[in-house]
Amino acid sequence: MKLWIIGSIRTSLDTVEEMQQEVRKLPTGTGKAIPNEQRLDLQGRLALLQADLLYQRSQCYPAGSEDRSVAANEMLRSLDQAMSKLPADWVHRLSLAIARIRGQIQLGNYDDAITSANTLWESLLAEKDTFAFGFH
């Protein structure tokens, strides 16, 4: 059963990667293009889906195992890449930050997770009037 789940997650990750490539190819600008903001939103949503799948894959392995660590590190790398490409005011950026904290906890990097959570909290407080993370 575990192998089937891991295989299904791998298939889903491959599909997400194919979708990410297609979104990158979408024309932006005038004519038949989609707005750049819409393309960035698609990229961000796919990054969240990818991170969630990587998290689910990590859960298939025993706590403390090298396989779990590899999957969690892959999740963190994918989130870091997404965060570096998406605008700071992207509506779902909070979800990326929370997913990153989850990955740090998964790896047992509790100090890093606390630091990230504190940084997130401070940024939310700084933006309390506008809630740049999509809360109104």
Mean pLDDT metric: 87
By DSSP, the count of extended strands is: 0
Radius of gyration: 16 Å
What is the helix tally? 5
Sketch the major β-sheet.
Answer: none
Task: State the end-to-end CA separation.
Answer: 43 Å
The poorly predicted ranges are none
Task: Give me the strand/helix succession.
Answer: HHHHH
Structural class, from secondary structure content?
A: mainly alpha
Helix content: over 70%
Write down the overall geometry: flat
Q: What percent of residues are in strands?
A: under 5%
In brief, what are we looking at here?
72% of the residues lie in helices and 0% in strands. The chain contains five helices and no strands.
Keywords:
136 residues; mainly alpha; 72% helix
What does this structure look like?
The chain is mostly helical and 136 residues long. The protein has helices spanning 2-25, 36-58, 66-85, 93-106, 110-126. Helix 1 packs antiparallel against helix 2 (36-58), helix 2 (36-58) runs antiparallel to helix 3 and helix 4 (93-106) packs antiparallel against helix 5. The longest helix is centred in the N-terminal third of the chain and has 24 residues, at 2-25. The chain is flat.
